C-alpha cells in the first residue's frame, strides 16, 4: 500500500517502540505511573532536558496542551498564540471550554510570532475590564512548517518573561525542529527559558501518549490534580512511558525526525523540477506546501488523500513521516506527474 502524505499521524509505530511496549506487557506492575518503566522514562527526561525537569505523561496532544495551560491560568486570563496554533484551530475549543480562558490569536505570515506583534496585547495589563494575558504559547516547529531559530526564541521568551508571561511550547514536532536547527532538545527548551513543554512523539514513531515537561519543579502547582481531573491520568501508564525509553535513550527521536525532514526536502526538490510555480517556501521540517488549482486537487485527493490547508488560496499540504523512503517519494512524485497534463490546462 502507498504511504500517506496527508499527515505524519498516519504513519505506523517504530519497531523498537513496539518492542518496548511488548516488554512492558510481560508481567504485572503497579498502576498510575508507580512502575519502573515510568520512573526510568522520567529519569531519561532529566538526562535529556535537565536535572530540574519534572515530567508527566498524558494521553493526547490536546490533553497535554490543555493541562499545561491550566497550570498557569485563571479564568479571567488569556493566552497569546499564533492564529495557526493547534490550540486555536484544531482542538475544538478545548482550552476555552476547559479552562474558561480567552485565546488571543495573532495573524502571522509563517506561523512565527514576533515581539512587535505581542506588544499590543499587553497595553491593558492591570485593567479590570480586560482579560489579562498570562501565557505566551508558541509552536515549534510551527503548523506552517517553519522553525524558530534559537535566537528568535531566546528574544521572544526573554520579552515574555520581562512582561510577566509564562511561556508554553507546543512541541508536537519539536524533534523535527531540533534536527532542522542541528541542536539538542535541551538547547531548544530549558536552555532558552521555556516554562512548560507539551512534548509529542506520536507524529514521530510513537503509538500513543505525550509528555508535559516542567523545567522548574517549583511551578508544578496542582498539576497532578489537573491531569486527573482532565481525564489524562492513565491507569496502565507504563505503556505510554515505556515508549519514551527507546525514543530518548536510543535517540529514535533524532533518527526518525531526520528521516522525515530529509524526505520533505527531497519531495520539495523533485516537485520544483517540474512544478516550480506552484511550490511555496523550502521546507524547514517535514511539511511541504503546494499551490494547486482546486479542481485538480480534488481529482488528486480522490485517488490519494491529502489535506487542504488554505482553500481560499488553493494551498495544500504534504507531510512526510519517519518511515518514508526515497522510493516512496519517487512514487508520490510520479502520482503528481500523472496529473501534469491537467495542471498545464490551468
Taking Cα atoms only, what radius of gyration do you get, to the nearest Å? 21 Å
Q: Mind telling me which CATH architecture of the largest domain this is? A: 3-Layer(aba) Sandwich
The strand count comes to 10
Instruction: Return residue spans where pLDDT drops below 50 for at least 5 consecutive residues.
Output: none
The major beta sheet can be summarized as: 7 strands, mixed
Following the backbone from N to C, one meets helices and strands in this order, namely: HHEHEHHEHEHEHEEHHHEHEEHH
Annotation field: number of helices: 14
Structural class: alpha/beta
Distance between the termini: 30 Å
CATH topology of the largest domain: Aspartate Aminotransferase, domain 2
Account of the 3D structure:
The chain is an alpha/beta fold. It has two domains: 16-252, Type I PLP-dependent aspartate aminotransferase-like (Major domain) (Aspartate Aminotransferase, domain 2); 256-345, Aspartate Aminotransferase, domain 1 (Alpha-Beta Complex). Helices cover 41% and strands 16% of the residues. The strands form two sheets. A seven-stranded mixed β-sheet has the order 1-7-6-5-4-2-3, sandwiched between helices. A three-stranded antiparallel β-sheet has the order 8-10-9. Strand 9 (307-310) and strand 10 form a beta hairpin.
Amino acid at each position: 500500500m502507498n504511504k500517506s502524505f496527508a499527515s505524519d499521524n498516519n504513519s505506523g509505530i517504530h519497531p523498537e517502540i513496539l518492542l518496548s511496549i511488548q516488554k512492558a506487557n510481560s508481567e504485572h506492575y503497579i498502576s498510575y505511573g508507580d512502575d519502573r518503566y515510568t520512573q526510568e522514562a522520567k529519569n531519561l527526561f532529566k538526562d535529556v532536558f535537565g536535572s530540574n525537569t519534572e515530567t508527566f505523561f498524558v494521553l493526547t496532544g490536546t490533553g497535554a496542551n490543555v493541562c499545561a495551560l491550566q497550570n498557569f491560568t485563571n479564568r479571567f486570563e488569556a493566552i497569546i498564540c499564533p492564529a495557526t496554533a493547534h490550540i486555536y484551530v484544531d482542538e475544538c475549543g478545548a482550552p476555552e471550554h476547559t479552562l474558561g480562558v480567552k485565546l488571543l490569536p495573532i495573524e502571522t505570515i509563517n506561523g512565527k510570532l514576533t515581539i512587535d506583534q505581542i506588544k499590543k496585547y499587553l497595553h491593558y495589563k492591570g485593567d479590570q475590564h480586560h482579560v489579562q494575558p498570562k501565557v505566551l504559547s508558541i509552536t515549534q516547529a510551527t503548523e506552517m512548517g517553519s522553525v524558530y531559530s534559537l535566537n528568535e526564541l531566546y528574544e521572544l521568551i526573554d520579552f515574555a518573561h520581562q512582561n510577566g508571561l509564562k511561556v508554553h511550547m507546543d512541541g508536537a514536532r519539536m524533534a523535527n525542529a531540533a534536527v532542522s536547527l542541528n541542536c539538542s532538545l535541551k538547547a531548544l527548551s530549558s536552555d532558552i527559558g521555556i516554562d512548560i513543554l507539551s512534548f509529542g512523539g506520536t507524529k514521530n514513531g510513537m503509538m500513543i501518549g505525550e509528555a508535559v515537561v516542567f523545567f522548574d519543579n517549583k511551578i508544578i502547582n496542582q498539576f497532578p490534580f489537573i491531569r486527573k481531573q482532565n481525564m489524562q491520568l492513565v491507569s496502565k501508564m507504563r505503556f505510554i512511558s515505556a515508549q519514551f525509553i527507546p525514543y530518548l535513550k536510543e535517540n529514535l527521536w533524532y533518527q526518525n525526525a531526520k528521516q522525515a525532514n530529509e524526505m520533505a526536502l527531497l519531495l520539495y526538490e523533485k516537485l520544483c523540477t517540474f512544478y516550480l510555480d506552484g511550490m511555496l517556501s523550502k521546507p524547514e521540517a517535514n511539511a511541504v506546501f503546494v499551490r494547486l488549482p482546486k479542481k485538480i486537487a480534488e481529482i488528486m485527493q480522490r485517488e490519494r488523500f491529502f489535506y487542504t490547508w488554505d482553500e481560499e488560496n488553493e494551498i495544500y499540504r504534504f507531510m512526510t513521516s519517519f518511515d518514508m523512503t526515497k522510493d516512496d517519494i519517487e512514487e508520490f512524485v510520479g502520482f503528481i506527474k500523472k496529473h501534469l497534463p491537467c495542471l498545464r490546462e490551468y
